[in-house]
Amino acid sequence: AIIYLRYKNKGMLQLIMWTNQPYCVYQQLKRDGIFNCDSHKSILLEEVNFQNAYQWMIDQMKRKVDDPPKNVKTPIWAWYRSKNYQHCRPDFRWAQDYEDEVCMEIDIPEKQVLLSEFEEWHFVLSNSYLAPATNYEEYQRLNDWFESLTPEKQQRVKEKSWQQIFDITIRRQDEWTMNGEMVQGCFWQLKRDQVRKVWRLKKGARVREIN
Q: Going by C-beta distance under 8 Å and a sequence separation of 6 or more, which residues neighbour residue 108?
């Protein structure tokens, strides 16, 4: 079957993405019809770097997408391009995060999603300057300039440089222009009727599609 990157449904552009979650999340989604991320259950958010980076992304979502629904504070993450510039389901056997987990193929209105470059997101996670360089000499020059700034100016420049992660245009000319290979998406809330397919992987078992 052909999977479209985006299509119209009732006049709205939709994106097809994939999110990996514990199986209990899928059970909750079937029971309640809706799932919101609980930041208190995220191991990653115990780390300061992740807390700061997630807060920055939350601020960007409020600016570029919309404010979250009531009582929702943390976004849900999903894949839009999972590998080699391909819009396809990720093989979650490569990095199984839970002993019992699911990969859900989901259908979200485009206007509700904020897409970003996965590799460049790591500059936000490490609180580093993302130099807009296209060769090594330019990279050195920009980083030398950055190091000459005051700490206050550095922080402003860093945060401005991070806006580059939202350019997911595919460019793969050389090692300096490999943009758009892996793209992640953030959105506030997942509803049961937005789930198209579900695959389950239990530790020690084969992946199988479930209802």
A: 14, 15, 17, 78, 185, 187, 190, 194
Q: Is 10 left (phi over 0), alpha (psi -120 to 50) or beta?
A: left
Using an 8 Å Cβ cutoff, are 200 and 210 in contact? yes
Work out the burial of residue 149: count CB atoms within 10 Å of its CB; fewer than 13 is exposed, 13-18 middle, 19 or more buried.
middle
Could you give the 3-state DSSP secondary structure of residue 120?
Answer: helix
Angle at 209 between CA 95 and CA 193, to 5 degrees: 100
Each residue's pLDDT tens digit, 77-89: 999 998 888 898 8
Lowest mean pLDDT among 2-11, 100-109, 115-124: 2-11
| CA–CA dist 158, 161 (Å, integer) | 5
Q: Tell me: the pLDDT tens digits for 9-44?
A: 656 689 999 999 999 999 999 999 999 998 777 766
DSSP 208: E
Long-range pairs of 42-50 with CB within 8 A, sequence gap ≥ 24: 42/74, 45/74, 49/125, 49/126, 49/127, 50/125
Give the list of residues 6+ apart from residue 5 with CB closer than 8 angstroms, or none.
Answer: 15, 16, 87
